């Protein structure tokens, strides 16, 4: 089995940081109306402004292996980083996933997220992979973080709250 397929299966079967935890600053619920995938995501920040750190991301995700794995990867990649760094990671993931196979992804920036590069060739699955990420940016905004570096189109690609 391909290493990337194995990474997706591992994150799907053993999602990292799964389960809704307290404390949290904001909670969002997003649904991918095309397939029914759902995620409830909580974010907990420490500090304020551009220096704020992502202390925790917890979530409950119901859906396909791509959706669950992508949300697991999200949590792994943003916890412990600044909000600014986490938004750069989001932008790198979004760019790769919406590239229709033209952007292989930057492993330094998105870690295990590169395993999802193949999803970009299947537009119907892109929303699955972006669901947790758009819920995350929504939660950041609700927690008072400045997410102006992301476009409103990017935030709406993953689902509805």
UniProtKB/TrEMBL annotation:
Residue span(s) of domain NIF system FeS cluster assembly NifU N-terminal: 4-128
Pfam family, one: NifU_N
Lineage: superkingdom: Bacteria
A GO molecular-function annotation: iron ion binding
Annotated GO biological process: iron-sulfur cluster assembly
CDD domains noted in UniProt: IscU_like
Cross-referenced InterPro entries: NIF_FeS_clus_asmbl_NifU_N (IPR002871)
Protein name, entry field: Nitrogen fixation NifU-like protein
Organism: Yimella lutea
